[in-house]
Design brief:
alpha/beta; eight-stranded parallel beta barrel; 13 helices; 14% strand
Length: 371
Amino acid sequence: MHSRIPFVVLLLSLLSSGFLQIALGLSKIRPDQAQPVGVTYGTFADNQPSAQEAVGLVQSVGIRRMRLYGPDHNALNSLRNTGIEVVLGVPNDHLPWIASNQDNAKQWIQGNVQNYQNVNFRFIVVGNGITPFHDQTSQFAQFVLPAMQNIQNAISAFGLQNKMRVTTAVDQSEMLNVNYQPSQSEFRPEARQFIDPIIQFLVHNNNAPLLVNLHPFYSLVHVKEDIPMDLEAQAHRESRSARFDYATFRSAQTRVQDGPLIYTNLFDSMVDSVHAALEKAGGSSLDVVVSEVGWPTEGHSAATIDNARTHNNGLINHVQSIGTPKRPQKRIETYIFNLFDENKRDPEVERHWGIFWNNKQAKYNINFQNQ
């Protein structure tokens, strides 16, 4: 005789499996909308494997997208005919030269893109993490938009405009007035003169997405306002922090209300804060691509292999299945930071974001194969 299953238990089981959400047409993403999670390839180090070995590793573990922060020709040569989609960065210090002259931009595209036609370029990212009020990057702010325009013109001159898109990458925490309720977020007033023309450029270039670097780790350890301080009151346990759970996809029981929307993880909240800011700046038609997100394994008490495993696997599972509360049917294209550790970064915690050791062994179990 079959035992009877209580209706509530059955309902919860169906919800957790996603079956009922699909049947009701709720927030599950259809399989044909799924996109692979990529990885960043930061190389500020003197002890990493060669670019050829790095690309071979990426292929062997099933990673199908890779972000390069600059035109590493050894990496580009290794990426030929692999099918891996490449996000290629124009380094910040190249921008003044490219912005000053259209021929310079054409020369840059010739040497780093046109000469690699059997590399599958996805985005050309003009500048990374530039803000007009940050001491380390403000000197480049005036060059971002004209460099984007010149790069776009150069791509069009080579007939490549339908094969790749031109954009830039900004830091969410630098550019936004963050709030634990994403709907209240907006670009900082001192950033508007910089970001508004860039948004209009993206809108007028077939709604090219805005790339955004975001790091829940720093929101957690620096006690930033995008994690509400009263979240601990929701925790009916003593062994773990609700703020920590919220930052690492560890528990769907932790909830933050924003009007009709409910957030169960910080990643969704951070992404939707950018969506909200874009809407207020004339960019409601733009998608957000998360160009950096990850978790370190050393250098801070919260930076452990177990925490990195929990966050990054939770991230992959999450973005593969559903969108954000604000855009539930739009899966977020995402790149995990970073392939290897970078031993030349400071402070110490900045050195340990790799998902692989330099001997090419995984630091922890992480699965890209089922994407």
